[in-house]
Amino acid sequence: MRWRADVGCALALLIACAAPPQRAAESAVSRTGDAPNDTVQLARLEREARELAKTDGCASASACRTAPVGWRGCGGPRTYVAYCAATTDSVALFRKLDELKAAETAYNEKAGMLSTCEMRLPPAVTVQGGRCTASR
To answer: What angle do CA 53, 103, 84 make, to 5 degrees?
Structure first.
């Protein structure tokens, strides 16, 4: 009888893996496979997110923050954006970054994108000329 439970669990796992659920984020990326249009939409979302990340207004690096940008095919953010926590609407910034991550994840899955699988850690931040900047 034990093998029936094992077979049932294996079957449930196969079914769950075979049909991933549709994500609401797919609306940000076209369903028709229009790669040029998809990349334009992704670029627009990233531009909007970077515009929300205000870099000026912090006097010290301890007041600066970083946020993950995008999503690579193998997982994890593509890069990070530095921002000043005192002058940035962080709720709006993270909403836009979440929208970008979801759209890029959907695009990567649809396009079968692959990437390197190294872990990209947030960069250190400094203040240069009154602006938060990411340093490597």
So the answer is: 10
Q: Which of 64, 34, 69 has the alpha carbon at shortest distance from 48?
A: 69
- What are the sequence ranges of the domains in the chain? 23-135
- Rounded to whole angstroms, the Cα distance separating 2 from 54 reads 59
The pLDDT tens digits along the chain (136 residues) read: 433 344 343 333 333 333 333 333 434 454 445 667 888 999 999 999 999 999 999 999 999 999 999 998 888 899 999 999 999 999 999 999 999 999 999 999 888 887 877 788 899 999 999 999 998 6
Q: What is the pTM of this model?
A: 0.71
98 neighbors 17 (Cβ within 8 angstroms): no
